[in-house]
Amino acid sequence: MDGIDGSINDGVLVLGATNRPSTLDTAILRPGRFDRVIYVPPPDQEGRKQILKAQCNVDLVDFDYLASEKVSGSMTGAEIVGACREAAMLAVREAMEGTQNTRMVPIVLQRHIEQSLQMCTPLLSNQSVLNEYMKFEQDQNKKY
Length: 144
Known about the structure:
By secondary structure, the chain is mainly α. Helix content is about 45%, strand content about 0%. The relative contact order is 0.15. The model has no long low-confidence stretch (mean pLDDT about 85).
């Protein structure tokens, strides 16, 4: 990258991220550009729990259960965030289905979150995608 010599004295760290490594132009991976490829796995159970808590600021929710392998095990952080947004939409739709004379405030409940998590098909549940990511990391790091 022009103007950056790669030394620690530059004080510059350039970091890139993608969920589609196979589509990267090989020029960007040449020495002196992005020299290292690091596969970042999906969040562990504690990470999933913290994402759920941050996105679903609701009471009476069993975040340990929702973050379990059984419920959200192979989901990425982005997939969990998307499921939480969908849970909010489920609550809004449910509130709107009430009678016209009754104004209900949408409240996100555990069942909304569970339903939205079940509707999501995690990208990394597909073993071939996961293998592709890990192979890409290995191939790129062998060059150096």
